[in-house]
Write a structure and sequence with these properties.
The complex is a heterodimer. Chain A is mostly beta strands. Chain A contains no helices and eleven strands. In chain A, the strands form two sheets. In chain A, strands 2, 4, 5, 6, 9, 10 and 11 form a seven-stranded mixed beta sheet that branches. Chain A has a four-stranded antiparallel beta sheet with strand order 1-3-8-7, with no helix packed on it. In chain A, strand 5 and strand 6 form a beta hairpin. Chain A starts with a strand and ends with a strand. In chain A, 33% of the residues are buried. By secondary structure, chain B is an all-beta fold. In chain B, strands 2, 5, 6, 10, 11 and 12 form a six-stranded mixed beta sheet that branches. The chains are: A mainly beta, B mainly beta.
Chain lengths: 114, 113
C-alpha cells in the first residue's frame, strides 16, 4: 500500500490558463474521488469513478472542469479557463467497493489562480 | 439531499482531558456509514473511526469513541486522554450506497499543555 499520490503538490497559474492535475490511487482500489477544499471548510464532492466509468458529477462541477480515468487506473482533473474562484486544494481519494470501505486521501494539489 | 452539520467551528481541550465533538446528519435512509476523519495542519486526511448504522454498539478505537444516536441522527466523537498530536481539523462524514461521502464543515481542535 503505497498510498494515494497526487501531482503536482502546488500549482500557480494565471487566470484564463488551463491546468491539469493527476491522481494515482491505491492500486487495488476501484473507486476514485475528486473533492475540492477551501481554507477552513470541509471537502466538497466533485466527481467519482468506478474503474474507468464516471458515475457521478456534482453540480459544483462546471463545464470548465473535466475528469478522466482511462483504463481505470490514474485519473486527471482538468480545469479550463481558470478563474480566481477556482483557487483551492483539490483532493483525490480512493477506496475499495463496499459501503464500509473508507476513503484514503492523497496530499492534495493546491491551486492558486492569480 | 443528505446533509452533515458540525455546529462547533472550534474546540479546545487540555492535555489528558476529554473532549467531545458534535455531528448531526439528515437522511431518510436506514443503511449507511458514518466516519470521523482527522486533518492535521498541512497534512493529509486520515480516518479516525467509523460506525455502521445498523449496529447499535458504539465504535471505539483506542482513545477515540463515538456516541451514535440513530433516532436523533447524531454522531459525536469523544477523544479521551487528549494529546498534543490530536490537534487537527476533524470532519464528520456520511456515506450511503451509490453516492460519494458527504463531509461536514469541520471542527478545529486545539490541544494545550
Amino acid at each position: 500500500d503505497t498510498g494515494v499520490s497526487q501531482n503536482p503538490r502546488h500549482k500557480i497559474t494565471k487566470r484564463g490558463q488551463n491546468v491539469t492535475f493527476r491522481c494515482d490511487p491505491i492500486s487495488e482500489h476501484n473507486r476514485l474521488y475528486w473533492y475540492r477544499q477551501t481554507l477552513g471548510q470541509g471537502p466538497e464532492f466533485l466527481t467519482y469513478f468506478q474503474n474507468e466509468a464516471q458515475l457521478e458529477k456534482s453540480r459544483l462541477l462546471s463545464d470548465r472542469f473535466s475528469a478522466e480515468r482511462p483504463k481505470g487506473s490514474f485519473s486527471t482533473l482538468e480545469i479550463q479557463r481558470t478563474e480566481q474562484g477556482d483557487s483551492a486544494m483539490y483532493l483525490c481519494a480512493s477506496r475499495r467497493t463496499g459501503l464500509n470501505s473508507p476513503l484514503h486521501f492523497g496530499n492534495g494539489t493546491r491551486l492558486t489562480v492569480t | 439531499a443528505q446533509t452533515v452539520t458540525q455546529s462547533q467551528p472550534e474546540m479546545s481541550v487540555q492535555e489528558a482531558e476529554t473532549v467531545t465533538l458534535s455531528c448531526t446528519y439528515d437522511t431518510s435512509e436506514s443503511d449507511y456509514y458514518l466516519f470521523w476523519y482527522k486533518q492535521p495542519p498541512s497534512r493529509q486526511m486520515i480516518l479516525v473511526i467509523r460506525q455502521e448504522a445498523y449496529k447499535q454498539q458504539n465504535a471505539t478505537e483506542n482513545r477515540f469513541s463515538v456516541n451514535f444516536q440513530k433516532a436523533a441522527k447524531s454522531f459525536s466523537l469523544k477523544i479521551s486522554d487528549s494529546q498534543l498530536g490530536d490537534a487537527a481539523m476533524y470532519f464528520c462524514a456520511y456515506h450511503q450506497a451509490g453516492t460519494a461521502l458527504i463531509f461536514g464543515k469541520g471542527t478545529t481542535l486545539s490541544v494545550s499543555s
